[in-house]
Amino acid sequence: MPAKILSVDDSKTIRMLVAKAFRPYDCIVLEAGNGEEGLAVAQRERPDLIILDVTMPIMDGVTMLSKLKEDPDLKQIPVVMLTAESGRDNVMHIARLGARDYLVKPFKEDQLLAKITRIISLQPKGAGSAN
Q1: For residue 130, is pLDDT > 60?
Q2: How far apart, in whole angstroms, are the C-alpha atoms of residue 13 and residue 21?
Q3: How many angstroms from the chain centroid is the CA of residue 67?
Q4: Domain boundaries, the chain
Q5: Per-residue pLDDT tens over the stretch 80-102
């Protein structure tokens, strides 16, 4: 069964970079442009992991993360935050809210994949498809 990864970012470019990073793997990348959309997609699709931008319009990533962690059906979904600020206070704040990890923008594809594969298992496309 392919892993479901939800990418929530107001930047279409970042969402495209995330989707491109996972192309070689057996996974489904879902997208949302803000926290409100992201929350709706998470409730509907129950992703295995969420990659969540901190700064977005309508609902920011910190608010979305708080709402995820308050929801008994969604609170177990691991979240990797994307942030432009690597300051210790910012990192500590998102960790206290329940983010599993974070990545500072701009990031490289291999950095993203290294963080994600520590949290969920990704299968290369074509591997294990004989199930």
Answers
A1: no
A2: 12
A3: 15
A4: 3-117
A5: 999 887 677 878 888 899 999 99
Residue that the structure tokens 């929801």 belong to: 71
Q: What is the pLDDT averaged over residues 99-109?
A: 92
Phi, psi of 24 (to 5 degrees): -70, -5
Quickly tell me which residue has 């996974």 as its tokens.
Answer: 27
Q: Which two tokens stand for residue 121?
A: 């298992």
The order of strands in the sheet holding 101-104 is 27-32, 3-8, 49-53, 79-83, 101-104
Q: What angle do CA 37, 98, 46 make, to 5 degrees?
A: 40
Work out the widest C-alpha separation in the chain, in whole angstroms.
47
CATH class (in words) of the domain with range 3-117: alpha beta
Task: Give ∠ CA 17-120-2 in degrees, rounded to 5.
Answer: 75
Residue type at position 131: N
Burial of residue 62 (CB within 10 Å: 0-12, 13-18, 19+) is: buried
Q: Which residue has the tokens 């432009």?
A: 84
- Report pTM: 0.93
